[in-house]
Amino acid sequence: MYHKELKPFPQDFLWSASTSAYQVEGAWDEDGRGPIAIDLKKDLPEGTSDYKVAADQYHRYKEDIALMAELGFRAHRFSIAWSRIIPDGDGEINPKGIEYYHNFIDELLAQNIEPIVTMFHFDTPIALDEKGGWASRTTTDAFVRYAEVLFKEYGSKVKYWLTINEQNMMILHGHKLGIITTTSDDPDKELYQINHNMFLAQAKTMAMLHQMHPEAKIGPAPNISYVYPASSKPEDVIAADNYNAVRNWLYLDLAVRGEYNTLAWAYLEEHGWAPTIEEGDLEILKSARPDFIAFNYYNTTTMADAPLGGGASERSEDADQQIAEGEEGYFKAVSNPHLQMTDFGWEIDPVGMRMTYRAIWDRYRLPLIVTENGLGAFDQLTDDGRVHDDYRIEYLRKHLEQTQEAITDGVEILGYSPWTAIDVVSTHQGVAKRYGFIYVNRDEFDLKDLARYRKDSFFWYQQLIQTNELPP
Ligand code: BG6
């Protein structure tokens, strides 16, 4: 297929950028916020900061939102910290936490920036972990109550809601990121029970929002990236298809169709990991429908056939959200020789993003919002008070070209919210791995003055939003 003319971005396209509470806010124990697992994690990867101060946005949100307005964001995706709203997860409501997000949302609205709220981004209150965490339905119920509080408080101000950030990555890589706690001696089985309980929480929440605020919209926010076969060898194609089911479609089939993906369910049964499904669960899952699909995209995965004895992955030791683990006997993760990598070893695949858009659209026919995409790099602040991040501009440009290709292909895309609006602390690679349009002046362990600086990408994105087209 050859397009001479690409379709333009829609006039009301939601140009945005993202953050998450524990990675940006800091103020970890202020104003009644309860602790989360990662606050107390002792074995953070060597040389990386904790999250106690992060970008200190809790104290500087007005300045940050003013910069976002100057850049021209039409929307901003951020997450609400459950443990600021209900410090122990299911007990007393914390008025200071409620107030903080009212102020934050009001500030965005005053600047004509549409809030896109993630309800849960990796930060389970630790008090719930101590009661069995997500493996227990106490947490499912607590989440639904938390959601009700959010909808009552902010439902008339917020039009776009996201339930759970990257549930699939919490299940596949949560241990590595220090964001999922399991206690049983069969952790994989427990993980898939956690998964099931999260699906129930999500379904109940989506149905509740529709009842409480019919005009508002809600969707899931998994990390979706298309899985390629390593070659046209039929066994490689089957391996890729199987991994697509386990990594991607399991999550979206449940969120959108309310049912377990057949291939993924067969995989779970074969391992003895199928969750316990209680009476009424399937009806709950079926009862909810999202209004859109939000997804995070960084790159694709490539899988080969994995005969026993052949290893699971070429890069098991590096495995994280974007470097697949593979599994001997099922799918072997291999590098894609056609792709370059970031400084942190993540493959870069803009065309794969077009493929991912098409695959999701073909399967579900729901409008899409990209809620993360971006380049983690070792940015340097220069003497002119700028960061010359032409590499980031290049990365974003290529992904947006492919987004325009996908729009031209007929995919309905509502918005683009790259990671991140402002530098945050990475999930496991510290402050040095920066993604923002706005630089935060701090190092791993030296907090300096935490001042904000505009990167070159700030001005590039500003121009793009003003003109609604990619700068020449
Ligand atoms: C996603 C998460 O997995 O990727 C974010 O939703 C995260 O929380 C982002 O920060 C980038 O990953 P990392 O590991 O570079 O911080």
From TrEMBL:
GO terms for molecular function: beta-glucosidase activity. The keyword Hydrolase applies. GO terms for cellular component: cytosol. Gene3D superfamilies: Glycosidases. Pfam families: Glyco_hydro_1. The keyword Protein transport does not apply. The active site is at E372. One of its GO terms (biological process) is carbohydrate catabolic process. Keywords: Glycosidase, Hydrolase. InterPro entries: GH, GH_1_N_CS, Glyco_hydro_1, Glyco_hydro_1_AS. Belongs to the glycosyl hydrolase 1 family. This is Glycoside hydrolase family 1 protein. It comes from Rothia amarae.
